[in-house]
Amino acid sequence: MKIAVLPGDGIGTEIVAEAVKVLNVLGLKFEMESALVGGVAYDAFGHPLPEATLKLAMASDAVLFGAVGDWKYDKLDRPLRPEQAILGLRKNMGLFANFRPAICYEELVGASSLKPELIAGLDILIIRELTGDIYFGQPRGRRIATDGHFPGAEEAFDTMRYSRPEIERIAHVAFQAARKRHKRVTSVDKANVLETFQFWKDVVTDVHAQYPDVALDHMYVDNAAMQLVKEPKRFDVVVTGNMFGDILSDEASMLTGSIGMLPSASLNTKNQGLYEPSHGSAPDIAGKGIANPLATILSAAMMLRFSLNQEEAAVRIETAVKKVLAQGLRTADIYSPGTNKVSTAQMGDAVVNALR
Ligand code: IPM
Ligand code: MG
After folding, report:
1. 110: pLDDT confidence band, cut at 50, 70 and 90?
2. Which of 50, 82, 46, 45 has the alpha carbon at shortest distance from 66?
3. φ and ψ at 165, to 5 degrees?
4. Reduced 3-state DSSP string for the chain
5. CA of 280 to the centre of ligand 1 (A)
6. Distance in angstroms (rounded) separating the CA atoms of residues 245 and 310
7. Which atom of ligand 1 is nearest to the CA of 68?
8. Minimum-distance ligand to the CA of 8?
9. Residues near ligand 2 ion, CB 5 Å cutoff
10. Choice from 37, 246, 254, 266 to test ligand 1 binding pocket (greatest atom count within 8 A of CB)
11. Is this structure's pTM higher than 0.85?
12. Pocket of ligand 1 (CB under 6 A)
């Protein structure tokens, strides 16, 4: 089992170190190799996704990823910005299926900005298509407008597009995931306005014919954004395109009170995957030892489950995380009076102890 370890920028190095600690006490044999990615890779090699890093990732069964990005790179040309590293990995590895669970842990119900009764027991799985849509559609760029409201003016444009096979494969992923859960899929679109998403809706409906045991409903993205805060527990599996999924998954993650708790998985057709916390690099708190490593530790659990075929070890990690929460240990982001505030490393150590 070969794991590429790509900590990246900001808090990435601190949180990935804790996940590696946890992996090392499972009694399993891994080959782990680290490489630079993001801003730190740009500083060292002049590119956020150096050839060697990409090669390592492609040759591994799984990538354990921290986070990339820092404001100090915002002025670079787009192809050199840290975010291009994650987009490049998604594209080159074909990681089209992104799983973003939003689970509310019993002990953290009070950390949400929503009323406890709305989110207690919340367990949503957002499945975001990750290699298509307006993120990757060509053409894109800047030009002088020849039509529109201001002919002759400078303009910018992107292309939203999806092919039938791209929609079909993510729909299959969603229906199959729903079968292991509560058998309900909500497909989120903007079919009332966009051609791309009328097509999305039609194709998802076609694929649904193969899953009569799963209930499917369709929802416009604006309504979905509203329903997520109004009645989040109505959702089971949500499947949507790349851009809507980017936005809705941030919204869903915050329902649970802390984005510091949520893992994610991005898979290709060979079950090769990239595993990363749902949160970003948080340069403002980097190096202070206060970041929450649990999202990364839980991402390592997803990695064991999806790419390394080690379900039992995955469950062990998840159980250990619940145990440290029950013990009252909290990093700053999930701290509340009456609990025990710990550092990044102390939290990692606590999970390690819970595993022993
Ligand atoms: C995410 C992030 C990325 C995205 C950025 C960093 C390119 O927001 O993984 O959700 O937009 O997909
Ligand atoms: Mg995002």
Report:
1. confident
2. 82
3. -60, -35
4. CEEEEEEECCCHHHHHHHHHHHHCCCCCCCEEEECCCCHHHHHHHCCCCCHHHHHHHHCCCEEEEEECCCHHHCCCCHHHCCHHHHHHHHHHHCCCEEEEEEECCHHHHHHCCCCHHHHCCCEEEEEEECCCHHHCCCCCEEEECCCCCCCCCEEEECCCCCCHHHHHHHHHHHHHHHHCCCCEEEEEECCCCCHHHHHHHHHHHHHHCCCCCCEEEEEEHHHHHHHHHHCHHHCCEEEECHHHHHHHHHHHHHHCCCHHHCEEEEECCCCCEEEEECCCCCHHHCCCCCCCCHHHHHHHHHHHHHCCCCHHHHHHHHHHHHHHHHCCEECHHHCCCCCEECCHHHHHHHHHHHHC
5. 8
6. 28
7. 6
8. 1
9. 246
10. 246
11. yes
12. 83, 86-87, 246
What are the structural domains, with CATH classification, of the chain? 1-96+268-356 (3.40.718.10), 100-130+160-263 (3.40.718.10)
Residues in the chain, overall count = 356
pLDDT of residue 228: 97
Q: What is the pLDDT averaged over residues 276-299?
A: 96
Distance CA 279, CA 156 (A): 29
- Tell me: the pLDDT tens digits for 68-90? 999 999 999 999 999 999 999 99
Backbone angles phi, psi at 313, to 5 degrees: -65, -35
Annotated catalytic residues are 135, 190, 222, 246, 250
- Ligand 1 centroid–CA 21 distance in Å is 26
Instruction: Find the angle CA(155)-CA(160)-CA(161) to the nearest 5 degrees.
Output: 145
pLDDT digits (tens, 9 = 90+) for 286-296: 999 999 999 99
Mean pLDDT of 49-75: 97
Distance of CA 80 to the CA centre of its chain: 22
* Residue indicated by tokens 């801003």: 39
